[in-house]
């Protein structure tokens, strides 16, 4: 009887161990060079090189980002089975939407839009929102709707990088665009502390809930994706400004 060929038993596969916490945090923070602080449009904004028209385009396009944040956070809530986290994300929605009309981050963004010379109507009807900006922001919301909730939360870790940039933005805008008053920048002055707290809170959650190497890799990829979203948003503003 012919002997049957010996087939080597597959080597047992062990999932790769997760990175130690500190290395995981270092991998996340290591994406800072991809943050939108380095985008040429932001550089020009901070250097005082934008025309009034470009500032208006920036504010009107970013309006779309601001107004979609609550829907992005609601998507996270709808996918998250952890009550403690849902409560925290509910606060984020209320921060932007306010408790009543005319309050909250979105209303403060609208105030900034008016300060740079946009009418309320042209902001709200979104006539200046470039297709690429809409695509980028919608991709962020879709990511939150369709990816596991920890990944969606990890994509918001750009907030780790934003406090320093926002602080600098307030100083630079006041220095370079003298027609803008400090109170017009209430969106940023009010946001700096909140965004610092949120960044820390998000990092803590991501570290606690990403317990396999796969989850850690997915969190790093989610943060890279979000950096791309922000860059794509500014690319769209930049190209609209050139038209
Ligand atoms: O001014 C900025 O540079 C900046 C950046 C970011 C960010 O990095 O995503 C946010 C904000 N601002 C911001 O104000 C904000 O509310 C916010 C929410 C989120 C988010 O992903 O959930 N990012 C940001």
TrEMBL record:
This is Pyrroloquinoline-quinone synthase. Ring cyclization and eight-electron oxidation of 3a-(2-amino-2-carboxyethyl)-4,5-dioxo-4,5,6,7,8,9-hexahydroquinoline-7,9-dicarboxylic-acid to PQQ. Its EC number is 1.3.3.11. Residues 1-20 are annotated as: Disordered. Residues 1-11 have a biased composition (Low complexity). It is an enzyme of class 1 (oxidoreductase). Residues 28-235 form the Thiaminase-2/PQQC domain. One of its GO terms (biological process) is pyrroloquinoline quinone biosynthetic process. It comes from Saccharomonospora cyanea NA-134. Gene3D superfamilies: Heme oxygenase-like (1.20.910.10). NCBIfam families: PQQ_syn_pqqC (TIGR02111). The gene is pqqC. InterPro entries: Haem_Oase-like_multi-hlx, PqqC, PqqC-like, Thiaminase-2/PQQC. Pathway: Cofactor biosynthesis; pyrroloquinoline quinone biosynthesis; Cofactor biosynthesis; thiamine diphosphate biosynthesis. Keywords: Oxidoreductase, PQQ biosynthesis. GO terms for molecular function: pyrroloquinoline-quinone synthase activity. Belongs to the PqqC family. It catalyses: 6-(2-amino-2-carboxyethyl)-7,8-dioxo-1,2,3,4,7,8-hexahydroquinoline-2,4-dicarboxylate + 3 O2 = pyrroloquinoline quinone + 2 H2O2 + 2 H2O + H(+). It holds the Pfam family TENA_THI-4.
